[in-house]
Amino acid sequence: MRKTFSLTVAATLLASAALAQGTEITIASWGGSYQDAQSKALFEPASAATGVTVKQETYGGMADVRLQVSTGQVTFDIVASGSGSAARAGAEGLLEPLDYNVIDVSNFYPNLYSDYCVGGDVFSTVYAWNTDTYGENGPQSWADFFDTEKFPGSRAYRGSVAGALEPALMADGVPMEQVYEVLSSEEGIERALNKIRELRPNISVFWSSGAQHAQLMKDGEVDMTTGWNGRFDTAAADGAKVDYSFNQALLDYDCFAIPKGAPNKDAAMQFLAEISKPEYQDDLPKYITYGPTNKAAYDTGEISAEVAASLPSSPENAAMQLPISLEWYAKWETVAAEMYQEMLTE
Predict the structure, then answer these.
(1) DSSP per-residue letters across 227-248
(2) pTM greater than the 0.90 cutoff
(3) Residue 4 CB: number of other CB atoms within 10 A?
(4) What is the rounded CA–CA span in Å between residue 155 and residue 201?
């Protein structure tokens, strides 16, 4: 019996290897320092280990997936996604359900994977400031970010709704733990939009990508911006005069999904299983300061205590932040996005 079992396992492994060899998958992500980090820590090493050839592209998010699926011209096998966008896309039927018999998430932090998207990294949406303008005494809350008398200067703000409404409500005095309750009505969404409208005369740029908001700070084009912590750390290492705080930041995660009708679905599922392993995830913070979703990555010895303390998912930093509500995004993102775009075109 044991011999038969061993032969079965061996046959399965050989079948997986045979599938991998000569297989090409296309992965779409968001470019810049983020995709560069993914490539070095995840895609390239996993490609070498599995024999799967990885073709990388950049894309504009789930709108591109929606177009591919609706036209039946799906070319992406795996896409990087924000957790909220993936929740909505899964609810729309744009994504393949993931097979967690193939992808091992037994060591993942809770709530960092879903039926349609497996977590790849933990990041924070923060407020960042130009240290030439404000020194080390920059804003320490969203109320400060929105306070143009206490902190005069130009701002940049996100040009799409994900992560844009929560800061406005906290700036308007809503306690962190009540933000999604207030946002669960059109009146609450309008309250957040009105707060952004107050700030709008000081918003020079509505940014559309992480590469853009990092460049804005590197160039000194704005005095403050919202954005993703790892992008600012990369910019600072490259000479940008930028700092940020985790206080009241939005704790979120990026994930990997398989579009509905992906041409290499099985190979994509196996590849996701590979890059979810701790021996890949522990390398990501070497290239960008985003935390691993696999807890075991902290136990390999690759992530020092000093580096761990700078990551969004460290206990001290996580305690200061508002975790993103995927339930809210699945239910309200479409309505909120329409209202947000109407505000932008006023």
Answers:
(1) EEHHHHHHHHHTT--EEEEEEE
(2) no
(3) 8
(4) 9
